[in-house]
């Protein structure tokens, strides 16, 4: 496990993101939680300023941070401010919580690639926020769509083709 890395992202309700990422090659573990807000030990009923996010544990020998972000930008709408599907508010913002300058640079590069693709009608509004404590959500939120297969999600793969591969072929 010591060669695994972690990535922290938010893109609306954490249930759907977790459900899609759990199936990706190289993703070894997922955990949903709260990040980027104003209080310690946030809960679903008290998480001011926190985004509903996900902690991804991944094997960098199988997938990269860049590939994770490429998939992230295909599974949610990164052009809506504080909204995904029916969910509204800063909890549902699109955000990348970078852990170092390299991750920040990769995130900026991917955002430029996504914007240049013209696939989304608007520009990417995903925020780049420095890593802050990731607070795991309550147990009933973990693996929610596995436990509740007909539960709500606004996440689905909107584009099959990788933004990275398309950019490389231009």
Automatic annotation (TrEMBL):
Enzyme Commission numbers on file: 1.8.4.11
Keywords: Oxidoreductase
Keyword Oxidoreductase carried by entry: yes
Protein name, as recorded: Peptide-methionine (S)-S-oxide reductase MsrA
Organism in which the protein naturally occurs: Meishania litoralis
């Amino acid at each position: 496990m010591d060669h695994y890395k972690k990535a922290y992202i938010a893109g609306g309700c954490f249930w759907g993101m977790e459900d899609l990422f759990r199936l990706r090659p190289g993703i070894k573990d997922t955990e949903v939680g709260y990040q980027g807000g104003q209080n310690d030990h946030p809960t679903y009923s008290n998480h001011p300023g926190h985004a509903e996010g996900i902690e991804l544990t991944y094997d960098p020998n199988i997938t990269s941070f860049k590939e994770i972000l490429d998939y992230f930008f295909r599974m949610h709408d990164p052009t809506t401010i504080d909204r995904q599907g029916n969910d509204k508010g800063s909890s549902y913002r699109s955000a990348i919580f970078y852990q170092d300058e390299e991750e920040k640079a990769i995130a900026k590069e991917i955002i430029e690639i996504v914007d240049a693709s013209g696939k989304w009608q608007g520009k990417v509004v995903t925020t780049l926020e420095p890593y802050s404590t990731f607070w795991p959500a309550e147990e009933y939120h973990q693996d929610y769509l596995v436990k509740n297969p007909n539960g709500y999600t606004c996440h689905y793969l909107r584009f099959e083709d990788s933004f990275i591969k398309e950019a490389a072929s231009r």
